[in-house]
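Hello,

Our lab assistant flagged a job as stuck in the queue for most of the afternoon. It eventually completed. Since we weren't sure the result was trustworthy after the delay, we are filing this so someone can double-check. Below is the sequence as submitted and the structure that was eventually returned. Let us know if re-running is recommended.
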Amino acid sequence: MIKNLNQPLKIQGIIGLIAVVIFATQGQLWSSVYGLFIGMMNVLMLSVTFKKADQKAAEDPKFGILVLYLSAVVRFILLAVLFVLGLALFKFEPMAVVLTFVVMQIGQMFNLKGKRRLTD
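-- returned structure --
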């Protein structure tokens, strides 16, 4: 389980800010900031659902797994809605939004270093 929420937020936040600075030099500041927002929402939802699944797994391991599966579905839908809103409604630049989000998610690998399981 992600024991400390500050570390994932810091690592992915720094990576996201680097992407924002790079895209800001190309005139796509707000598009990359929106990608940063989507990435942070994903990290926050992931950490909250891991905490909830860990609590439920102490009582019933099968219910803990169910919480993880349902949270994956909810996060997928939320991310899809946020991407559609940003790209279709707000007309943000797709490349900046998607790449900022993707590099932030690559930063999640740093949070998994030394862990045998995702929930450690």
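-- support follow-up --
The delay was a queue issue, not a problem with the job. The result is valid. The mean pLDDT is 87. Helices lie at 6-24, 29-59, 61-89, 94-106, 108-111.
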